[in-house]
Specification:
Blueprint: E1 2-3, E2 28-34, E3 42-46, E4 51-58, E5 60-64, E6 69-73, E7 77-80, E8 86-89, E9 95-101, H1 113-123, E10 130-133, H2 138-156, H3 161-179, H4 181-185, H5 188-208, H6 215-222, H7 226-237, H8 241-259, H9 264-270, H10 276-287, H11 291-297
Parallel strand pairs: 1-2
Antiparallel strand pairs: 2-9, 3-8, 4-7, 4-9, 5-6, 5-8, 7-10
Helix pairs in contact: 1-3, 2-3, 5-6, 5-7, 6-7, 8-10
Amino acid sequence: MIRYQKNRLVLASDSKELLEKESEGLPFVCNFNESNVFIGHHIPWHWHEWFEINYTERGSYLLQTPENTVEIHQGEAVYINGSILHAYDFPVDGGYYSLSCDTRFPGGEFGSYLDRKYFSPLLRSRSLTFLHIKPDTERRIRLIGYILQLLDVLREEPRGYELAVRQILGDFLILLSEEAAEILARDQAGNERDLERMKLMLDFVYKNYGDQIGVTEIAQAAGVSSRECTRCFKRTVDRTPVRFLIEYRAQMAASLLLGTGMSISEIAEKCGFMSDSYFSKIFREIYQCTPREYRKEN
């Protein structure tokens, strides 16, 4: 699905764009943005956890990050990594497609085989903020071709189109990793260290999520400070340790709601929630329904 009516951003107080609110449950959202609908022909500074792929259909615009400003022309594309602060200015009338995607969509949860082998080095790179893609080499022309394929699928929405999007997106990201190989090489040592730490910390969360644990205990599992623990989680899974723990508890609770006859109170306690009301609040926030509704509907 491509949306053609977007004229503003839904931002939290910290300038984070809340893409999840407009995705209708899909792990991606695609918009066609026209410069003349934005006040002052400007899209203000914002960021989002999802990565972004833009293709300029007509005109041009200025992409700004804290370190760079680059002009993206008609027929060109740009990849913007997740959690990168950016803004847009339109010196001339123009329009571009913007596809934003959950970092977990191509290869699954952080640490999965596909994620480790193909996607994590790119999607969680600390050196790659964005990549300007001009159709001036064979590989870049292929990259733009993948983007155009994605847009065709999203326009037509054939049966199973979500799977087609995932396949094309995977091909695009693998080829993009080749294009950005020199940049990604700078991250290799740091990423390997983060991966080893994350394995230890995630293993601790998986085994102890039902207990009253927090950042301190998670950090101790890898022998790092609470501050470094938080940095490591943000760099690798785009979440704080506490948020990751909460989401994992909710995921385990959802599994128990469907796979057991335990009461909601028993599930809340088993999954580490301090009270039934807090459990219901978090569950509704993540699954858009109460635990009772989730069990009944599924």
